[in-house]
Structure formats: C-alpha cells, structure tokens
Amino acid sequence: MKRKEIEMGTTSHQQQWFRRFSGLLFTVLVMLVATVSCQSPRSTVLPIPEPPFKGKMGRTYKESQPDKIPITRAPAGAPNVLVILIDDCGFGQWSTFGGQISTPNLDRLAENGLRYTRFHTTALCSPTRAALLSGRNHHSVGTGVVTEIGTAYPGYTGQIPKNAAMISEILRQNGYSTAFFGKNHNVPDWETSISGPYDRWPGLQGFDHFYGFIGGEANQWAPALYRDNQPVEMKVPKGKEGHYTLNDSLADEAIKYIFQQKSVTPDRPFFIYFAPGATHAPHHVPKEWLDKFKGQFDQGWDKYREETYQRQLKLGVIPPGTKLTPRPKEIPAYNSLTPDQKRVAARLMEAFAAYTAQTDYEVGRILDAVEQTGQLHNTLIFWIIGDNGASMEGTLYGAFNEMAALGGIQEDPSYLLKHLDEIGGPTAYNHYPVGWAWAMNTPFQWGKQVASHLGGTRNPMVIAWQGRITDQGGIRTQFHHIIDIVPTILEAVKIAEPTEVSGVKQKPIEGVSMMYSFNSASAKGTRHVQYFEMFGNRALYKDGWVAACRHGRLPWTMGSYDFDKDNWELYDLAHDFSEDNDVAAQYPDKLKDLQDAFWVEAKKYQVLPLDDRLTERVDPTLRPSLIEGRTKFTYYPGSIRIPESSAAQIKNRSHTITAYVDVPQGGADGVLAAEGGVVGGYTLYIKDGRPTYEYNYVTQVRYKVTGSEVMAPGPNTIRMEFSYDGGGLGRGGTVTLFVNDKKVGEGRIEKTGWGRFSADETFDIGEDTGSPVSADYASPNRFTGTLKKVEIDTQPMNLSAVDKQKIRTTKREARLAME
Prior knowledge:
- With 819 residues, the protein is α+β, with helices and mostly antiparallel strands.
- The chain has two domains: 80-524, Alkaline Phosphatase, subunit A; 620-802, Jelly Rolls.
- The chain contains 15 helices and 31 strands.
- A ten-stranded mixed sheet has the order 8-7-6-5-9-2-10-11-3-12, sandwiched between helices. Strands 20-31-22-27-28-29 form a six-stranded antiparallel sheet, with no helix packed on it.
- The termini are far apart.
- The relative contact order is 0.12.
- The model is unreliable at 1-41 and 810-819 (pLDDT under 50).
C-alpha cells in the first residue's frame, strides 16, 4: 500500500512537471511558428508580414541599437524557373515528337529531361495562358474564350480576378525576379489603351519586367510592342534589315535580361515566362529560313501524316498499336487539289515550317544564355509545344491575309498564286490550309478550337531540371493539364500555395503537382478528372475514359448550331491513344456517367451557359468600353498606338474625319490619320501636297481618292466624308474630300471590312505606326507640317433588320447575365 502511494505520488509529480514543460514547449513553438510565418517564404499570406523590430530604441541613436532591414529571399536552393510557351502547335509538328520539321534545340532539351505525351491545353490561346499562369481552369478565371469576344457571363468576362493570383506574383513576393517576354493575350480588350486601367497588365500581375505585345497575334516584321506599359518600336540592328523579326527581338531581350540579372544577383532566382507568339499566324520569317524548306512538303498532308505516324511509333512518343485517325470528310484530300492549289499549299507550309525552325533556334539561344551564366543545373524548364493544337483557321486552301479568312472573306486562288513569292514577307499575312493543320496534329482528330478532341488539346511538353531529373530522355504518359504547371512550380521551389494575396482571399488552385512523375515513369497519375470546353465543343476525361462532343461549327467557318442535335462519342484512352475507336454504342452507361460528370464540372467551374456564337459576340458593345456612347472624338498631337477597340468606331456607318494643319512654305506630306496596316485599314494622308484617302480592303483591293488641288501654305482644314450605303455589314460607300470646305475629290469604296482590321495594328494621327496601310508609303511616314488636331464624327450603324436583331438579341442576353 505504501509503495503504491509512493508510486502514485511520483507519477503525479511527473505529470505536473510534464504539463509545465509541455506548456512551455507549446509557447516556444507558437512563438517559433509566429516568427517563421513572418519570415518564411512559405507563408500562405502574401505579402509576407514584416518581422518585429529586434533592435533597441532609445531617446537618441546613442542609446539605440538598429535592427537589420528585412529582405525577402527565396527558399534556400530554390531554382530558376523558365516557362516557354509556343503558340498554335500540333503534336506532330516538332521533330522531338515525330514531326518532319527539325527542332534540334527541343531535341537536346528532351535528351536531358522528360517528354510528356499526355499533356493537355484548353484548345485556345487566351484561355490556356490564363490557366497556365493562375493554376485554375480557364472558365474559373473568367477566360472561357478570348477577351475580344467575351461577355458578361462569369466564365467569359475576359477579366482574370484578383482572387486568382498568378504564379508570377506568388514568386515575386517570395523573393524571385520575374520577367515576361512575348505575347500577352490576357489583358481585356477595353483595358489596352493608355487610359488603362493597368490592373491586368503584367506589371500589376507579378512581373517586374515586360517586353512584348498585347493581343492574339503580332506582325513579326512590324509589331506593336510595349516595354512594361509604354509603347515602343522594335529596333532592328544595323545590317539586319529584312532579316530581323520579332522572334529575334524577343530572344535578344530575354538573353539581355538573363545576363543582367545574373550579373547583379547570381544567387537570386528568376522566373521567366517566354511566350513568343510564334508559331501563330501570320507566318512571317526571313527568306534565308524560308529557302531551307523549299520543296520539302510537296508530298501533301495525307502523306505527311503517314510519315509522321511512323516516326512517332519509332520514337515511342505514341504507344505500339496506336491507330492513325482518318481524315475528316470536311477536309479535302491533298490529291484532290489542282496543281496551282498544291503550289500555294506547299509554299504556305514551307513558310510555317521555317517559322517553326526559327522559333526553335531562338529558344535555343536563350537556353545557351542560361548555360553561359552557369545556371542550367539550377533551372527548372517547362517547354510547352502549343497553347492549343495547330490552327485550322487558314481556310481549306490557305490565306495570303488571314484577317480576310477570319472575317469570312474569300480570297480568289489566282490572287494567292499571284502573291506566292511574297509569302512570309512583310506584305503578306499568310496562313496555311486546314489540311496542314490537321497533319500537324498527327495522330489525332481535329485541331485548335475543337476542345472535344485531342487534336485541339493534346500538346507535347518537355520538362528539364539538371541534377534533379535523373531519367534523362525519359517519356511520361500520366494524364495532365495546363493548370498543373503552377502547383508543380510551387512544390519544386518549396513555396506554399497562398490563401491570401495583397489582402484578397484566394480561390484554391485547381491543378495538381506533376513532380511525383519526375523520377518515376510508372508512378500512378494524380489527375483523375478534367473537363474541356470551347465554343460548345466539349469533353470530360475521367480515369482513362473520355466522352467527347464536337459541336457544329468548323474552326474555319462562321455560324451557330443547335445544341440539342449534338452527338457524343466515347473513347477508352487507356487502350486507344489517338481517339480512333468510338465505343459509345458498346458502353452507354459509361458514356452517361461521363456526360453527367461534365455538367457537374461545368457548373463548378463557371462553364455555363454553353455559347457557340462567334460573329454575334464580335460586337464591341457587349463588353465594357471607356469610349461607350461617344460619337465625336478629338485627337491631339502625339496620339498614336491607340488600340482599335479604343479608337473611334467607323465601321458599318457614315463618318467624317477632319484634320487641322499648318502647311509650311514648300509644302508638307505625310499621314494625318491612319488605322490598321498591311492587313487592312484606312489612311488619310498628304502626298505631293494633295490630300488622299485610301481604304485597304484586306489587301485584296485598295480604294483611293486623291484631291485635285495642291494645298496652299498656311492653315488648312482637310475633311473626308464617308457616306455608308447601309443595309448590312461590310457594305460600300462614297468618299468625298474637302479642303477648306471646297470639294476636291470623290470616289467609291465598293466593300468595307465589317469587323476588326487587325489583331495588333492601331490608330494613329500624324504618322502610321506598325505596318503601313497604304502601299504608297513606308511607315511611319510622319506628317512634315504641323498637325493641330484630328476630329472624327460618327453616325449610328446603318444595318439590315436581321443584323440589328442579332445585335439586340446578343445585348439582351448579356444584360440578363449581368443581372
């Protein structure tokens, strides 16, 4: 009994001691955690809270002891991160994945890294880029389509919300230097002017530096560029005129940044996002590159697919037993083309191949720069071959001017043949035929825009990280999606997913990390479900199966289709790599399961309502505008590089352009006002002292009206009145020129463009930036007199009853969405 009491007393004493020790330990741990949360880059609240002052504060500095000013540093050993995103590429394009086009730099990276053969995008550019940088699904961040046709539905606004911070912002606030070079197609169209706002420009989305273009594409010879948020012109090095394009310039800028950043802070990691805009149309490339591919595609697209398929099997990038999917009936057989059509098709493909090879070369220069700084072993590289499948927007027989194709305007085959030698050069805006896009997507069905099938969404990717990825040259077949890049980066650099960024609570990242696959080819995949949707084309992947529904409209056509008539297909991807065998009839229950799962995902990620309209959504009044409701515009000297969406809307309506000038003794020439470029547009200019108005109709026809009299020295007022015929979109009209209210010229314009002149050209007064609208002058053709101002007065659109009803219906639906 006594012994038991002693034992009990001892135990009680130990318990009391343990409780006191535990309490002390807990207090210490809480303090430690609090300190770490203030200092550690793994904090889930950004910016990382300032640490408490640890010095001594007296009445004067003599009785005080300063603390150290804190610097946010990346986690110890955190690598540089380089993300390379190529534009409009197919699975069967680059030699690394079996394509005919030799891409030695991607080849060498793959030899030192991993090739991912079941990686996926969204089937369109802006949505993929939003998903890539945010780690969330594209509808989930308001980017269900490109910003130019966004609507007020939550999944389609074109505005990436602040509760979906980009990886650039997360890394920047965790001690990284950040830079962006190339294409930014995630600034809402109405926020691209000098008036901003700049919330969704790179500088306020985590990038310390930006050099590139805003929008879907750029003229490689005369791009509309920005450095941060200031417009700049591309500087062509002396001696490289005619040999230097945007591809060269972007690589030069990235290399200069790498050298400078590593010279100043070699231990500070960088995050570089390099998205050159290549190989998106226009397929511009210097002649020395183009000449290398002469005659290499005379076999045509059907034969190309067969040859590529065999190379893919040999490389192991498609598994044994993979079937080569047949050509859709909507795409013509190559042998059905006339000899002239074949000449055009082959030349257009040669330009695209040269553009691809040049792009590979320029990215290779960037990899060389990383290696030269001794950083290659400490750089995690993602090289993603396409933000979607190869583009099927070049019409069935190709386009000299792809803006005509996008506007539904036909080009006569003889016109293409006449301009054959200009393809790839500064006067062209070329795009290859649909058949070549289909061939670039070997072995899959369809291509860009078609999110229902792998030709639109399965893009190759190479990941390399020397010293960390040991299975060099390996192939990875786990199913992954573009939203999985962000969580992979966060795990690699040992930074926690933030729950709050700059005071805004964050929606959870929807991707999963791929790091588990780096050193294990047989590791079980972690992505079990993924939806796809674009223009009503939709699919649902679930544990090796995919239900697919290609909806109505073909990528190279306009129109809207009945969702009730859609037909679903089912593929067992575990045994059918290329989606060749539709087994919907054999497994109706499985198909129903996946169809039901699609609607669950669609509701969860803001995919609804499904919307296949294209032409109707081009209407700019469906989106916010800083110039909404204005019909009178006054532009003052220096007003240049105004985006088309922010300039006076003169299409499909009557309008007047008035320029107030002072002409010096001896006369003055140059541009007074211009919008667009080589692809199409209008320009009011002075040549040989006479006012001239020229309308460039998608390069096919140039309508010109020239004044009959030379302007006298002194103040002059030049006025152009355009009287629109009306009754529909893209109709003609009459141009009348006046000088000091005296009529000096008149002429007809038989056809006008109904939509955008271009994707990247702008409106200017006093000069014509970018490529020239007129063939009579070279840009910028600045006015040599004094231009005081330009006024533009516009009338309401004069449309047919059918056109008006379409616009009213679309506007009504947009208002209902906002309500």
